[in-house]
Amino acid sequence: MMATVDPMVLSWHQRASRCKGRQRPFTARDLACLSPRFTRPEPIMAMTFGTPEIAQAQTPIPRLPARAERAESFEGVESDMQDNIWTDFAKSYDQIIPQLNCYQQMLTKILRDTEGRRTVIDAGCGTGLVSQALIDRGHQVVGFDNNSAMLQLAHDKKADAPDEAGDRWTVMAGPVERFPSQVVSDADAVVLNNVLFYVRDAESALREVFSHLKPGGVVVATGPKRRPDLRKVLRHSIAEWQAEGRYTEALQAAVDHHTICAQKLTTDPNEMVTFFEVDELVDTLRRLGFSRPLAADGDDYYGENYYVCMQK
Ligand SMILES: C[S@@+](CC[C@H](N)C(=O)[O-])C[C@H]1O[C@@H](n2cnc3c(N)ncnc32)[C@H](O)[C@@H]1O
């Protein structure tokens, strides 16, 4: 099945997987260095998430260097940074996530709902995939996250951007429950793309969103409606990649690494903590002061995710 993807997103997406410094795509050889498991071709279509077979097959994944050893430091409150599961996800995140048609479809909706809204806060920006697409559309973007490894990749994207784009892009450290003090308080839009599921006190984050928006500004929040079936998402995605002839060895290797991280994410009850049904999130946002839903559906990620855009 070919997905309809906004051509702007596609051109950005192709650029995002370019071979450059630390951003070059994972190859099978890279992953073989990480773990002997990656040298074995796995029957990927027959993956069984959360089963003892997968658990036994896991070998420890080396961690990225500790924060103190990394070259970059970020604006923001360093003590708020977390060394958590996203440190491991960062190793394959940009090799797999932008390739997912379901991610691109959600991104297309985010670009639609932020169009014409100049200043956008990308809260929980991760590696900067949404920020980069917004920058390419001419927005002013402030992205922040509380995981150094993810944020480093956002920082690298900003560093690679042309000067004019880099001047519109701020990357900083901080938690979504308490936005960094340098973040603008009169944004036109705030995006929380696939972030709230990891946040225990999601209401604090949504209150912060409200207080950082100008009247008429919008929040876009997305995430899983319930503990997600990531096996289903990957099964669909792999079938699409195969049909499109782009299921390369490097992508298979990235899927393999992502699968191991995702297994812990989805089975450890302390990892994914907050889910919303569409109506439940709309009601919550209304209670916090938001007025009008502009978009609200549960279609993304093959029916696993909510997508809500609501106006202050
Ligand atoms: C699934 S990733 C999504 C990243 C990005 N929004 C995207 O669309 O690619 C989730 C991100 O949320 C970040 N995150 C989770 N909880 C957070 C918190 N309390 N404060 C800041 N960032 C958080 C993680 O570090 C991770 O980078």
UniProtKB/TrEMBL annotation:
UniProt record, GO biological process: methylation
Coiled coil (UniProt feature): none
Alphabetical UniProt keywords: Methyltransferase, Transferase
Matching SUPFAM superfamilies: S-adenosyl-L-methionine-dependent methyltransferases (SSF53335)
Superkingdom classification of source: Bacteria
EC annotation from Swiss-Prot or TrEMBL: 2.1.1.-
GO molecular function per UniProt: methyltransferase activity
Stretches assigned to the Methyltransferase type domain: 122-220
Protein name: Class I SAM-dependent methyltransferase
